[in-house]
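Anyone able to model this chain together with iron/sulfur cluster?
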Amino acid sequence: MTSDKTPVLILGGGVAGLAAAVELDRRGVPSLVVEKTGRLGGRAAEFCCKATSVCARCGACRVGDLLREAFSRPSIAFLGGALAVGARVRDRGWEVDLAPQPVDGTGAGEPVEALAARRTLSAGAVILAVGHQPFAAGRKSRFGHGRVPGVLSAGELERQLKDGTLPAEARRLAFIQCVGSRDEVLGHAYCSRVCCGFALRLARLARFLEPERQVTFFHMDVQDYGPAWREELAAMRADFEFVRAIPGEVRAGAGGPEAVYAGPDQQPLAREFDRVVLSTGLEPPLAAAALAELFGLARDADGFLGLGGGGAESGAAGVYLAGTASGPRSINESIDHAALAAALAAAHLRGENREAAHA
Ligand SMILES: Cc1cc2nc3c(=O)[nH]c(=O)nc-3n(C[C@H](O)[C@H](O)[C@H](O)COP(=O)(O)OP(=O)(O)OC[C@H]3O[C@@H](n4cnc5c(N)ncnc54)[C@H](O)[C@@H]3O)c2cc1C
Ligand code: SF4
Ligand code: SF4
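re: yes, here you go
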């Protein structure tokens, strides 16, 4: 990328940013994808394939497909190690200052050339695809993450399944759902949407790898992902134990972590497991407050960017939102949302959008 002008500037190189760039290319609009880290692909690039004898439809392989598609299109340029630190309205578009960020070159995803020195870019429109922040399991201290041996987050279980470090002796697995979501105390009333599917696919994979494993699923209710999922869920209900309660505490037991919860008659029960897996959800992106201030954007009641309601409008003319930056979404939903953002950005360039022009 040598030009200091681009029709559309996309901040964030996860699935949403990449999908927005590909959709813009389909519409004949070049773009520049600016990623904060040194790698493209975002969180989804860290996920493993959860297929057993059949595909689990987890969506993880769509990242590789998108990267290949984006790299094959010459109208899409990429820049890593860069953060937007200033933004001003220019005509009907934006002028954005980018500052270099340190990159360590490790992690999942595809490496991308890093910004060497501060520079300013003009763009006809901006798409913010800065993603989400995974909830940190240790913040719900009553579940013992980091304190009680054998307690881990679903993301940590996924890494162990991926690199084969979950011991075969870890047979009694408990999942605790909605950790950090649907939680009024934290101010997170929203459902994170993806963590039921993530946990149950991991449970099914763990069981496939070691058929002796038993799974207990502590939950309030299970997200509905459509007819195909309902069939899969019916099979899992036959294989796993579903307990409609969220434990109040996880403590160290004699042979593993012990979950304490209310039984059917509200009597307290304590059950010991080999592993207790915490299903953590999504939080608004770390950059939400800074970007809202920089571009004059709205934020919804939960702190995500934008006006809420699932749209791609940001509350600022010529700025659009794609993917989990504006609320919890799966990989497939983030890709669809990015296509909407790209369509709005392309319409803005043509002067066809519904927003008021800048004063
Ligand atoms: C525990 C967990 C499990 C999940 N499981 C599944 C699953 O099984 N299936 C599924 O479909 N979905 C799952 N998801 C959701 C999935 O991770 C998201 O749908 C997907 O990552 C959204 O992509 P995104 O591009 O919006 O955001 P991200 O993947 O977060 O990508 C955002 C990118 O923007 C970059 N960035 C951040 N700030 C800036 C900035 N200021 N400037 C420039 N770049 C920036 C980031 O470095 C990152 O590369 C899960 C999420 C969590 C937390
Ligand atoms: S959708 Fe998920 S389970 Fe299916 S092949 Fe892709 S990565 Fe594997
Ligand atoms: S997706 Fe499931 S685990 Fe996640 S917040 Fe919603 S109900 Fe809870």
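The chain has seven helices and 19 strands.
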